[in-house]
Amino acid sequence: MTLPKLTKLGALLAAALLLTSCGQAGGQQPAVATPTPASLSRSTQADGGAHMMAALPDEGVPLATVDQGNQLLPFRDENGVKVFELTAQAVRWQFLDGVQQVAWTYNGMVPGPLIRVSEGDQVRILVKNALPEDTTVHWHGIEVPNAMDGVPSMTQEPIAPGETFTYEFTAKPAGSFWYHSHVDSDIQIGAGLHGALIIDPRMPPANPPDVDEVLILNEWRFVNGKTYGAMPMAGMDPNYFTINGKAYPDTPVLQVKQGQRVRLRLLAAGQFVHPMHLHGLPFKIVATDGHAVPEGAQLTKDTVLVAPGERYDIEFVASEPGMWMLHCHISHHTTNDGEEPGGLMMVIDVAH
User: Fold this and answer.
1) Using an 8 Å Cβ cutoff, are 199 and 171 in contact?
2) Using CA atoms, how far apart are residues 332 and 32, in angstroms rounded to an integer?
3) Is 332 helix (H, G, I), strand (E, B) or coil?
4) How is the chain split among helix, strand and coil, in percent rounded to 5?
5) Which residue segments constitute the domains of the chain, with CATH numbers given?
6) Which terminus of the chain has a lower count of CB atoms within 10 Å, N or C?
7) Residue 220: beta bridge partners?
8) Can you tell me whether residue 151 is helix, strand or coil?
């Protein structure tokens, strides 16, 4: 958080007599677009804190046309360059049976589509902004040219509503990475503007895992049918928690066979830490933040603390058949609006 934003927030808190503090640890291409109605914009008051606390606009927001996020994003080949397209847009997303809320998304899904390439690939990603506010995309952990880093007013001008910006870089290094907004980050990232980017090694491993899944963890705040930014701040705490855009019992069930080796790529996209615990199946930490852990240094654990922005690749052998639970061990994070069970829980179904 920048110093100016802290100053505004401090002024807001002082004015509201809130004395509680909390925390946890290319080129631009114009695009033709329909002007954004003023009714769709969030508060544009000079007071940044009030803007931060405003609900996402919901007038005219369409229903999502897909029901699962993290879907593999197709590309087209242009003279050896893999070209992807992302559109930042608002949709009404179903987080849980009976819970459908506004989210800001890439390509209409939560989380955004999975971008998967190989080390050394030339990648071009066209990002169109169909939101009522500026945005950018930051390629978290990837070695990109400075001009492609996605930091507004530092490495590029923000992408204004209706405009398109082209990001281009060489995919490196191999590992588990992610992409997310870098504008109004308190709101935009947690509101859904995030997705995974996996770079496979140039030389495929001799013994790849049988199952390889990406699990993105996030928090949400829904009040009276409105979506607010969820953050570690008095009055802005989350009340819903999701894995790949769904809250338990609507989280995905991972089907595996006894004896298979499973890799889970855990990614914390929100602003809270999540100690993820796996029942019955001890795992090894094989990579952190996209970088492989040497075999001799790999820890065997049953719980790993995933902090905001971190990625942990864990592997285990599905040795025991049955329905095994993977969940956050902060109990509040396994609730839906205070009701347990819910939130950050999912089932790994090991079949004979």
Assistant:
1) yes
2) 45
3) helix
4) 10, 45, 45
5) 55-200 (2.60.40.420), 211-351 (2.60.40.420)
6) C
7) 240
8) coil
Residue with tokens 């947690």: 190
d(CA 128, CA 165): 7
Containing H/E element for 15? helix 3-15
Closest CA to 191 of 118, 103, 111: 103
Q: What is the DSSP string of 253-317?
A: EEEEETT-EEEEEEEE-SSS-EEEEESS--EEEEEETTEEPPGGGPPEESEEEE-TT-EEEEEEE
pLDDT band at residue 42, thresholds of 50, 70 and 90? low
Model's pTM, two decimal places? 0.87
Closest to 288 measured CA to CA, from 271, 263, 262, 265: 265
Sign of the dihedral through C-alpha 229, 230, 233, 236: positive
Is the backbone peptide bond immediately before 173 cis, with ω within 30 degrees of 0?
A: yes
pLDDT per position as a tens digit, 155-211: 999 999 999 999 999 999 999 999 999 999 999 999 999 999 999 999 988 999 999
The pairing of beta strand 291-292 with beta strand 253-257? unpaired
Amino acid at 133: E
CA 226 to chain centre: 20
Distances (CA, A) of 106 to 73, 129, 217, 303, 342: 11, 9, 16, 31, 25
